[in-house]
Records
---
Amino acid sequence: MPGSDNLPSLAGQAWLSSAATQGVLAVIEAGGHQARAVGGVVRNGLLGLAITDIDIATTALPQDVMRLARAADLGVAETGLQHGTVTVIADHRPFEVTTLRRDVESHGRHATVAFTDDWTEDARRRDFTMNALYCDRSGRVHDPLGGYTDLIARRVCFIGDAADRIREDYLRILRFFRFTAQYAEGGHDAVGLLACARLRGGLAQLSRERIHQEMTRLLTARRAVEAVMVMQAHGILAEILPAAPRPTVFRRLTEIETALAWKPDAMLRLAALGVVTSEDASRIGRAFKVSRAEHGILDLGASETARLTTPPSQGSARKLVYTQGPDNYRRLIALSLAGALAYSTTDPLWIAALTLPDRWAAPKLPVTGADVMARGVAAGPAVGDALRRIEAWWIARDFAPSRDELLAQLDLSA
Ligand code: ATP
Ligand code: MG
C-alpha cells in the first residue's frame, strides 16, 4: 500500500548499516536531497536473500551527486551520465546513484530521460512491481506502487501495461523470465506472459551484449528449467537461440549439477540446451557475443566425448582428464550423461566418472623436449613427434611408467 507503515523495516541489515552505505546516503542528504536504496537490494533484503550491488535513487541531480561525493572524498565515476547515473565509490564498493526520472521517450535502451523529484514517477518507469521498492537510511521501506504485496506473494508483474512496457525495451521480455525464474512461486503472470509472446519479434532488436548478460542470469536462475520450457512453448526461445533447443538435456544437466553440488555453469547449460554441432556453437556464440573462453565451453557440446553412451572406463577417463583438463572433463561427462539413453543421477559408474577429478589429478609428463634432444634428435618437429609418441606410450600404461622408464623407452626408440 502506498505510504503504508505496515512494511517491515530493513534497519539492522548489514548492507544498510555498513559505514559505506550510510556514508553515501548521508552525504547526499546533507546537500538537502533525498536518497534511498532501490531495486535488488531492497527486494532481496525483504526476502532475506543475499545482496549483490547497491543501487541508490535520489532527488539530487547528477552534478550535485558528483559535487557532494567529491567534497566528501568519495570516488566518482561518470558511468551512465546520459541516463542520470553516477557511480560513487565508498570503502572500495561501487554505489550506482541514479537521479529520479521518468522516461519520456523510449527507443529500447536509449530512453530520453527527464529528471523529477517525484518518487512515484521514478517507480513507474521501472520494470516489475517487486523492483520498485525503496529503502531510506533508517531502514524504512517505501512502496509507491504496492510492489510489496506482489513480492510477498512471489509474483513478477509488469508495472503498468505489459505490452507498452515491453515496446519501450524488449529486454524486459528476458527480464520477465529471469525474475520469474529467480523469485516467483507458481507460474508466470498470465498477462505478462501473453504480452511477451505477442511481442517476441522485438527481441531481434536487442544488442548481443544485453542478451548475453540477461540470458546468463536466466539460465542459472533457480527455476531456469521451467523458464526454458515456457519460453520454448511460447516461441520466445526460438527468437534468441539460433539452434534446435533440447530442453530435456538442459533439465538433466541442471539435475546433474544439483546432484554433485556443482555451481551452475551458464555456458555449459547453454551447450546442453543448443549445441550438437560446431556450427551450433558458432551461431550461438555469435548471437550471445561470447568470449573466446566461453566459446570453448559451448564447443564442448559438439565433441564426440560429449556423446558417450556409457560411462568411460577408468583408463579412458584418466586419459580424458589428462587431455581435456579437469574442468572440461567434468563438462564433457556431464553432457554425455545428460544426453544418455540410460540417464540416471544415481548410477554409481556415471557418478564415479563425473567425480574422478576430485580423486585423481593428472600427472605431468615426466620427460621433456630436452630429454629427446639429448638422445640425438635435432631441434625441430621431430622432437614434438617423439614426445607425442612417448606420451601415448605413457598414457597407454595408465601414467604408471616413471621418468627413468620413459628415458629407457626413449633410448630404445632413438
Ligand atoms: P539484481 O542486481 O539482483 O540482478 P536488480 O533488481 O538490482 O537485480 P538491476 O538490473 O541491477 O536489477 O537493476 C536495478 C533496478 O533498475 C531494477 O530493480 C529495476 O527497478 C530497474 N531496471 C533495470 N533494468 C530495467 C529495465 N530494462 N527496465 C526497467 N527498469 C529496469
Ligand atoms: Mg542491481
Note: The first helix runs from residue 14 to 17.
---
Amino acid sequence: MNFLEEKILRDGVIKEGNILKVDSFLNHQIDVDTIRQMAYEFKRRFRGVEVNKVLTIEASGIAIATLMGHLYDVPVVFAKKSETANSTDDKYVSQAFSFTHKRHNNVFVSRPYLSATDKVLIIDDFLADGEAAHALIDLVHQAGGEVVGIGIAIEKGQQKGGRELRAEGYRLESIAIIESMDWQAQTIRFREQPPHPLVNTTLQMA
Ligand code: 5GP
C-alpha cells in the first residue's frame, strides 16, 4: 500500500453517493507533507517526459500543481470555472459537468497562458468521469499545445474517466486508484498497481 492509500484509509471519509471526502489533507486543509510526497511521486512516474507547463483546475489541484511547477521549474496555470462565459475573445473555453456539484461549468484559460509550444502535464486531485480532465485537454488542444501526461492523486476506478483517458492513449498516472468503496462499512478497496521503487519521502524540495 502506498503513502496516499494509507492516508486515505486513515483520514478519508466515505459519503453516500460514491463521494470520498479528503478535506482534512487535500480539499480544505492541506497536509503539505502529503502533497509534497505526491509531487515527488508524479515526478518519478513521469521521469523522462519533457514538460514545460503544468495545468490544473481550481481549486484543489492548485496546491499539488504548484509543487510540480517547483520541481520542474515551469509555470503553473490553473483553469478557472464559471457558470457563464461572457466572451470567448480572449480565452480558451471548454465545458465540464461537475460530479460533486451536479452542474455544468465553463472552464477557461486566458489565451496568453497556453500556447502551441506547450508540453503540458495536467494535474488534478480527483478523476471520476473525466469531465475536468477532458476539459483541460480540450483547452490545451485549442491552443495547439500537447498533453504529455495526466497526473491524478485519487482516481475513482469504478467511474469511466480513467478507462476512457487510457483508451484515448493518454499517459495517465494515478497515485491511488479506488476499485470500490462502501459508505456504510467505511471500507475502500484499491486497485493493485505495479510496484514502484522506494521513494525517499523525507526528501526536501530541491
Ligand atoms: P470528473 O470531472 O473526473 O468527473 O470529476 C473530477 C472532479 O470532481 C475533481 O476535480 C473533484 O473536484 C471532483 N470529485 C469527483 N469525485 C470526487 C470525490 O469522490 N471526492 C471529492 N472530494 N471530489 C470529487
Note: Confidence is low (pLDDT under 50) at residues 198-206.
---
Amino acid sequence: MAFRATILTLYPEMFPGFLAQSLSGKALARGDWSLDCLQIRDFTTDRHRTVDDTPAGGGAGMVLKPDVLAKAIDHASEGDNRPRLLMSPRGKPLTQKRVRELAAGEGAIIVCGRFEGVDQRVIDGRQLEEVSIGDYILSGGEPAAMILLDAIVRILPGVMGNALSGEHESFEGGLLEHPHYTRPQVFEGQEIPGVLTSGNHAAIDRWRREEAEKLTRERRPDLLTDQPFRK
Ligand code: SAH
C-alpha cells in the first residue's frame, strides 16, 4: 500500500504546497503516496470554535487546547497503526535514518503545532513522537511537516528517477557528499579536477571518498563520532 500522510493543522490550505511540484507532485498524482489534511478547528464543540487558550501559569502566547487536538488525533488514528508525530523544536532532530524508517512504513499522522505549542497532556496521552527539523523556531509546524514529507517521499519506491542517486547522498554513508562538477570543462578559469575526466573509475571512487571524508572532518566532525556503525 502506498505511503499515507494525514496532517492535522489549522492551515490545511497550506498543503500540498511545494509538495505538488516536481518529483513529489508527480508521485502524488500517480498515487505513489497520498495526503489528506484534517482541520483541527473542525473538532471544536463550542460556538466560537476555540482551538487555543492562555497558558496555565501565565506568560505570553496561547496553547493548543488538549481536548480539541485529542479528538482530531483520535479521529485520524481510528483503526490505524501509523506513527503519530508532532512537529516540535523540542523534538529529536530529524535524521536520514528516521526518514528511511518512516518511508518504509505505512505512513504517518503529523500534528502541526501553532502558537506556543500544544498542551503536554495530549503529547503524553496520545504518545506523540516529537520531531524537530533543526535548532530554530518556525511560526508553525506546517513547513516542518512539508520538509519531513519531502524527505520521505523522494525515497519512496519509484519516486526518484535515478534510484542510484540516493545512495551516495550526504548522510547515507555517514558522510557529507563529495563536490560535483559538470560541463563546461573550464568555468571562469577553473578546471574540473582531472581525475573526474580520467575515465579511471577506481580512482574516481577513491577521490570522491577522500573528498567526502575531508569535507565531513572540516564541516561536521560530529557525524564521524556519532555514527560508530559507519563502514
Ligand atoms: N514555544 C515553542 C515554539 C512554538 S513554535 C518552543 O519554544 O519550543 C510553533 C510551532 O511551530 C510548534 O508547535 C511546532 O509545531 C512548530 N515548529 C517550530 N519550530 C520547529 C522546528 N524547529 N521543528 C519542528 N517544528 C517546529
Note: The first strand starts at residue 3 and ends at 9.
---
Amino acid sequence: MTTATADFTKRLDQTAEDTEALLAKLLSDTLLSDEIARPKRLMDAMRYSSLGGGKRLRPFLVVESSAVFGVPRDAALLAGAALECIHCYSLIHDDLPAMDNSDLRRGRPTLHKKTDDATAILAGDGLLTLAFDIVTRDEIHPDPTVRLLLTRALARASGIGGMVGGQILDLAGEGRFGDREPVDVARLQQMKTGALLRYGCIAGAILGQSTQQEYQALDDYGRALGEAFQIADDLLDVEGDAAALGKPAGADAALGKTTFVTQLGIDGAKQRVRDLLARADSALSIFGAKGDVLKAASRFVADRKS
Ligand code: GRG
C-alpha cells in the first residue's frame, strides 16, 4: 500500500467513525425544541438504516473538500451527516417493492423486509427532513447566507433536477410506466447518483467561501468522480461478488437495463474510468498538495469492490 493510499484509508475510516457517532447523536431519543415526541418505531427504523454500515463516502467528500479551505472539521462533519441522511433515505426508498424491490442492503435485510413498507417510507421521509434541519443549523457556519447556499444546493442535488428526477428517469427506462423510454445513461447517472456525490465536493467550496475558480474546480472534480462511481457500479454488477457487495450482483442485466457497460462494453467502460480519473486529477491541480486526498478518493471510487 502506498503512503497516499494508507493516508486516504486512515482518513476515510476516521470520517466514517466520526459520522457514525454524530448520526447516533442526531438520531438519539432526545427531543429538540419544537418537537413533540420522537416515536420509538420511527427512530428504531431510522437508526437501523443509518447506523452500522456504509462507506460514508459522501461525508468524506464534504470533510475533505472543506479541509482544502480550512473549514472547521465539526462543521464539515455536520454537513456531511446531513448528506448521509439523504443518501440513507434514498437507499430505503429505492429498496421498496414499488422501486427496486430489494431484500438485502449492506449485507442485512432491507428496512421494509425487517419492518414493513409504511415504516420504511416514513423512516425515509424522516431522514430526508432531518437532513434539512441539520444543514440549516447555526453550527454549520456563522453566516446565514452560507447556510442558505448550502441548503439550496442540497435541495437541488436531492430533488427534481437531481436524485429524485434521476430515479424516475431510471424507472421510465425500465418500462415501468408503459413502453421503455430511451435512456441517456450519462444524464441519468449525473442526476441519480452523481448529484449527491458532486454536492459532497462543492459543499467544501460553499463552506469555505471559495473563489469562483475553486468552486468550478471542485464542481469538475465532483462530476468526474460521480461518473467514475457509477461506471464502477455498473462494472460491479457484471463482475462483482455478491458477498462483497452485500446484495446480489447481476440486477441490471436481469432488468435489461441500459448502463455504461451495455453502451461502452467492459473494456470501453474501464477506459472511460481511466479518462475520468485523469480529468479529476487535472481539475484538482489548482489546489496543489491540498488536493492529494481527493485524488486518492477518486481512485478508491473507481477501484471499489463494494
Ligand atoms: C428513491 C428518491 C430515490 C432515489 C434513489 C441513489 C438512488 C436513488 C438509488 C440507489 C440505487 C443504487 C443502489 C445505485 C447504485 C449506486 C449507489 C448509490 C450505491 C450505494 O452507494 P454507496 O456505495 O453505498 O456509497 P454505502 O452502503 O457505502 O453507503
Note: The pocket of geranylgeranyl diphosphate is lined by residues 54-55, 57, 87, 90-91, 93-94, 99, 106, 163-164, 167, 192-193, 233 (CB under 6 Å).
